[in-house]
Each structure stands twice: as C-alpha cells, then as structure tokens.
Specification:
The protein is built from nine helices and ten strands. By secondary structure, it is α/β, with parallel strands linked by helices. It has a domain at about 1-80 and about 195-234: Rossmann fold (3-Layer(aba) Sandwich), CATH 3.40.50. The strands form two sheets. Strands 6-7-8-3-9-10 form a six-stranded mixed sheet, with helices on both faces. It has a four-stranded antiparallel sheet with strand order 2-1-4-5, with helices on one face. The protein starts with 5 loop residues before the first strand and ends with a helix. It binds adenosine-5'-triphosphate (ATP). InterPro entries: AAA+_ATPase (IPR003593), ABC_transporter-like_ATP-bd (IPR003439), ABC_transporter-like_CS (IPR017871), BCAA_Transport_ATP-bd_LivF (IPR052156), P-loop_NTPase (IPR027417).
C-alpha cells in the first residue's frame, strides 16, 4: 500500500503553558475523507491548526505529500498543497464573491478556473456580485471551500462545515464534498453531524483529552455507536 498523503505522529501542541494535544496519531490516504469526532474542547480544531502551523508550539511529526511540515512556517505549509477552512470560514466579508475568488493565487496545477468553480457552485455564480456580508451561512461556507479549490490544493482541512446550517444546505454541502471526492480530493474534517459524516467519510478518528482514542471505518459506525455515545457524552 502507498504512503498516506498525510501522516501525523505524536503531535503535541500548546497554547502558552496550556498543553492541548497529547500525542495525536492519524493518517489520511490519498482520496480519502476522514472525520475527526469528539466532545467540545477535546482538541479537534487544535489538531487542524497544529497541522497547518497556526500553532507554533508543537512537537511530533507531520508528513504531507513527502514533506516534513513540523519545521515549516505557516506560509510555507500553505504552499505545500494543503488548505484550511476554519470554522469561521475566513472569507473577505466586504468583498464580492468574484473578488474573493480572484484573490487566491493558483499555486499548483489543477487549481480551478473561476468558470470551473461556477459550474461546481452554480449558486455562487448567481451571487457573484454580492458582498460576503450579504451571503447566507451556506453560501459563505461554499465560497470558503471554493477559494481553496482555486489554489489547486490536494488536501483540505475543514472545520465543522455544516455548523449552524439548515438541513437542505447541509445536504448540498454533502453533495459537493462527494463530488470533490469523486475528483480525487483528500479531506480531513471535523464534524459533529454523524448523519452527514456517514455519507461522505471513509474513516473516523475519535478524540478525547487531546488524543486519538480509537479509529474505525464508516462500515463500523453503527456497531460503534455505544462507544461513541459514551465518549461523546450524548
Ligand atoms: P470545539 O468543538 O468546541 O471547537 P475542539 O475539540 O475543536 O472543540 P479545541 O478548540 O481544539 O477543541 O480546544 C482544545 C483545548 O484547547 C480546549 O481546552 C480549549 O479550551 C483550549 N483552547 C482552544 N483555543 C485556545 C486558545 N486560543 N488559547 C488557549 N486555549 C485554547
């Protein structure tokens, strides 16, 4: 079997003196969609931020596409082909959809043209002259993902893309992620909505107290529900 596209081993991370990650291990293979689950505050967002280099105080190893990310600063990590969409989405609110899509540089072969983006996101085309502030939460989420597709990134880290969205929009985002998967995109996502995640995820990693406590393929999701309820406290 070929090397995972992303391989994280023994990842520790700190906010100042506060030790948030305690040796996270995970792998994501090319073309897979992998979902991180766990209670609030167990370190899911911190894992994504530490992989990207948004948290500088970190130890362990992070290998992505043949490169060692642990020593790289954020701006270099962002050019290795790994993109991050934070929970707060990170679009330019005062700029229009078009302007948001023009700004990201196409950094690798495979970066989508604006026309390709609009064929994948017809609703964004309809809103192309609207400023970010006038977009719905779902449109903002789609624009945030679309901006990453402009760059030609091979892998996306998505933090709770369905948070606060209406069911019909959640379904649309699910279809979009399924289409990206068909096109070979690799995704690591944080997601609390199991119904949504079960439709697109190949595997799950369960986190507790700053580390991974188990992982399993989507086929085991139903039989793992007891364990999940216990760890998730729901
Ligand atoms: P949530 O779903 O609530 O975002 P999470 O699993 O993503 O939860 P993190 O946001 O990664 O959890 O938080 C992990 C731990 O780090 C928590 O104890 C949190 O309080 C702490 N933490 C997060 N951000 C900061 C920060 N900027 N400064 C200090 N501590 C932080």
């Amino acid at each position: 079997m070929s090397e995972p596209l992303l391989s994280v081993r023994g990842l520790n991370a700190w906010y100042g003196e506060s030790h948030a990650l305690h040796g996270v291990d995970l792998d994501v293979n090319t073309g897979e969609t992998v979902t991180l689950v766990g209670r609030n505050g167990v370190g899911k967002t911190t894992t994504l931020r530490a992989i990207m280099g948004l948290i500088r105080k970190r130890t362990g190893s992070i290998h992505f596409d043949g490169k060692d990310l642990i020593a790289l600063p954020l701006h270099k990590t962002a050019r290795t082909g790994i993109g991050y969409v934070p929970e707060e989405r990170g679009i330019f609110a005062s700029l229009t959809v078009d302007e948001n899509l023009i700004l990201p540089p196409v950094v690798a072969k495979g970066g989508m043209s604006i026309e390709e983006i609009f064929s994948l996101f017809p609703n964004l085309k309809e809103r192309r002259n609207s400023p970010g502030t006038k977009l719905s939460g779902g449109e903002q989420q789609m624009l945030a993902i679309a901006r990453m597709l402009r760059t030609g990134d091979k892998m996306l880290l998505l933090d709770e893309p369905t948070e606060g969205l209406a069911p019909v929009i959640v379904q649309r985002i699910g279809e979009l992620l399924a289409e990206l998967k068909r096109r070979g995109m690799t995704v690591l996502l944080v997601e609390q909505n199991f119904h949504f995640a079960s439709k697109i995820a190949d595997r799950f990693y369960l986190m507790d107290h700053g580390k991974v406590v188990s992982h399993f393929p989507v086929e085991e999701l139903e039989s793992r529900m007891g364990e999940l309820h216990e760890v998730l406290g729901v």
